[in-house]
Amino acid sequence: MEQWDVVVIGTGVVGSAVARELSRYRLRIAVLEKELDVACGNSSRNTGMLHAGFTYKPGSLKAECAVEGNKEFDQVAAELGVPFKRTGKLVVGFTDHDRENILKFKAIGEQNGVEGMRMIDKEEIERIEPHAGGEFAMYVPSSGILDPMAYTIALADNAAQNGVKFFFDRKVTAISRYVANNCYLVHTPAGAFRTKWVINCAGAFASDISEMLGYPNYPVRGFKGEYFVLDKKAGAFLKTPVYPAPNDRGGFSTHATPTVDGNILVGPDSYITEEWEDCKYTKDHLDGPIRDGSKMFEQMRREFFIRNFAGIRWKRVDEDGNVLDFKLESDQQHNLNTVNLVGIESPGVTCALPLARRAVARLVAVEKPEVNEMFDPVRPAPKRFYDMTREEQAEAIAADPEYGEIVCRCETVTRAEIRRAIHNPLASTLSPVSRTARAPPWAVARAATARPASPR
């Protein structure tokens, strides 16, 4: 049986970030995922906001990591080749109570170290974002937008590039500890993994893994939200995310957010679900985002609706149902050589790398591993054909004729890009290739089986 220094459980955004941070050291690292690809859970089912950190309790891990993750993201996006726009955000209000809450959380943001927030009137709202609702707003210049799936894939790609091994279709069913041998056996239906360390990044199922490691099975509650995706024609009317005033606890209802690809997301609503992977959407719950979204974005028109999706934020809660801070712990006395992360929900995308650094620091403090001098933080990310200039497209086609064959017209995906995605070391089935190349499975299958294009 192969021996690993550390096994990471889960390939959501936090698990993939932990894998990348671990690869800075000379360690044998395995990452286990129950699905066939990375980012199959809520890491790909969210708004894609880079949050500023003004609604989180001062001194909390959420607040600390959100501000840290926000400030570093320009460099991170450049290293990983991830599309990112620092758009700013408008938090709009209509009533005196809205103003009170906005000012309350503006003060919290300032205490957390969020810079540049300011109150603006309706006239300035219209100058910044003419199609936004609201009588007044707080403008937050540090907020931004990214593609959370692309970011998670990039983190995993870079980890693999630096020597991390990923194993898909490996659901963890049990974990056995062997004190005499100072190791764990992490059991999956496809076999066990022998390792010295285990890091729990299992997302929605983190409480189950927590219990397997000897920590509590922390109570969590699923807050489900449903979204509308609006056509890129709607994207012409909105360049800045528009959020409503936060409620008394700092939560937001439906907001309108542009994506880095030019669409608009409207949502989510929020309601409790008991089903762990209940990502279906329903007409009853989508009526709310239509009504509330229209207040944020006046171009919320049905002719722009192109699809829907849902995500679930699994929050750690106390016995009264109050939402608690992220849990990141390591107990060398009772649960030797483990790091446990539970309740990592929004703003998990923003906080992923700061959380990963803190998790990996627990291992480094004990093991003091050698630094990986060959670590490369830069992930080669060829430019998408869609984003190329006409001149760049002509050069790409001249170098590789398969760039001249469009397989998916909606996103202008070429056969060359699908071929490249197929050869990604993380690709195991058509599904991850489809997600990476941004093309439907039938287009992937067609490109994969077609005869190569002839040079011109």
Overview of the molecule:
The chain has 456 residues and is of the alpha+beta class. Helix content is 33%, strand content 23%. It contains 13 helices and 22 strands. It has helices at residues 13-22, 61-80, 96-112, 122-128, 148-161, 206-213, 232-235, 283-296, 348-367, 390-399, 415-422, 430-437, 441-449; strands at residues 3-9, 29-32, 49-50, 84-85, 89-93, 118-121, 136-140, 144-146, 165-167, 174-178, 183-188, 191-200, 220-230, 242-244, 255-258, 264-267, 271-273, 305-316, 327-329, 338-342, 406-408, 413-414. A hairpin with a 4-residue loop joins strand 10 (174-178) and strand 11. Helix 2 crosses helix 9 and helix 11 crosses helix 12. The chain is globular, with a radius of gyration of 22 Å. The model has no long low-confidence stretch (mean pLDDT 92).
List the keywords.
single chain, 456 residues, eight-stranded mixed beta sheet, five-stranded antiparallel beta sheet, 33% helix
Classify the helix fraction into a percent range. 25-40%
**CA-to-CA gap between the ends?**
51 Å
In total, the number of strands is: 22
Low-confidence stretches: none
The rounded Rg comes to: 22 Å
Q: Characterize the overall form.
A: globular
Strand-residue proportion: 15-25%
